[in-house]
Amino acid sequence: MKPSDTPSIMRFVLLALVPGVLMMLPWLGWALLVQVALAAAFGIGIEAACLRLRGAALKPHLLDGSAVVSAVLIALCLPPGVPWYLLAIALAGGIGLAKHAYGGMGNNLLNPAMAGYALVLVAFPSDLATWVVDGVTAATPLEVFRFRGASTVAEVWPHAFGVVGGIGWEWMNLGFLIGGLCLLAMGIIRWQAPVAFLVSLVVCASFGYDGGSSSSLGSPAMHLFTGGTMLCAWFVVTDPVTAPASARGRLIFGALIGVLVFLIRSFGAYADGIAFAVLLGNISAPLIDEFVRRKWA
């Protein structure tokens, strides 16, 4: 049965993240769980402080689970073992500014997790530049691919990629895909935004892939199973607060973010760019709603 209250929905979202987290552990180590726990503690503390500053009651807002979900998403986006203060800054920006500065849950324009992540990504790029995957400290597969110079796909692939995506990252994305499909089957999320996001990303990648030359922009499979694609598709663009309200609007919203992710990955300064694509989509959501209302009302 589909849960109807916010705390129950948030608990199911957290449970749906478990397959992805379990897939991350063999590659990223136990530091990931420490970071998730620390982020959850920071998130609850920042949520409580913001509620007090706004003069709002701690109960039931502090216990609705939304702050914990945002905190966990931020923790999963950051390399395990980042300095604790970067985690705190990301959570303060996401929960404190992107959420409570707009009046709290249900009133925010920007996705809190992506806003917090983008803040530290811009402010502290060197601290987020490398990940320790399977005991090896290196740039992410998308960074290796994006900044490979004149190397062909075949030349760069063995250094960072597995069967279809980045080494380790393809399994992580599979885990989040499984969790997202569980949420979809339960009716907790709607299909339009994630499906439109993934389809538009595949279409763009199909046009940008030439078989593997030095100018190739990557295969559809690589884009689907590298970086934060599946986490974004099933746990970020499905946020009902920061997405359009109508079904048609969510299709446009998801497709827009997919195009932006591909463009930023292929031509931007950031190898993944999901956070920036989502925030641009969030800003566009009211305009999309208005366009849909005028076109199909």
Can I get a quick summary?
The protein has helices at 6-28, 31-54, 66-77, 84-99, 112-123, 141-146, 153-160, 169-186, 192-208, 220-224, 229-235, 247-267, 274-296; strands at residues 130-133, 136-139.
Describe the structure.
- This protein has 297 residues and is mainly alpha-helical.
- It has 13 helices and 2 strands; from the N terminus they run H-H-H-H-H-E-E-H-H-H-H-H-H-H-H.
- The chain has helices at residues 6-28, 31-54, 66-77, 84-99, 112-123, 141-146, 153-160, 169-186, 192-208, 220-224, 229-235, 247-267, 274-296, and strands spanning 130-133, 136-139.
- The chain has a two-stranded antiparallel ribbon.
- Helix 3 packs across helix 4, helix 8 (169-186) packs parallel to helix 11 and helix 9 (192-208) runs antiparallel to helix 11 (229-235).
- The mean pLDDT is 91.
SSE map:
Layout lengths: L5 H23 L2 H24 L11 H12 L6 H16 L12 H12 L6 E4 L2 E4 L1 H6 L6 H8 L8 H18 L5 H17 L11 H5 L4 H7 L11 H21 L6 H23 L1
Antiparallel strand pairs: 1-2
Question: Could you list some keywords that capture this structure?
Answer:
about 300 residues, mainly alpha, two-stranded antiparallel sheet, 13 helices, 2 strands, about 5% strand, globular
Classify the oligomer.
Answer: single chain
Beta-strand percentage?
A: under 5%
Number of strands: 2
Low-confidence stretches: none
Placed side by side, the strands forming the largest sheet appear as 1-2
Q: What letter string, H or E per element, gives the SSE order?
A: HHHHHEEHHHHHHHH
Largest sheet: 2 strands, antiparallel
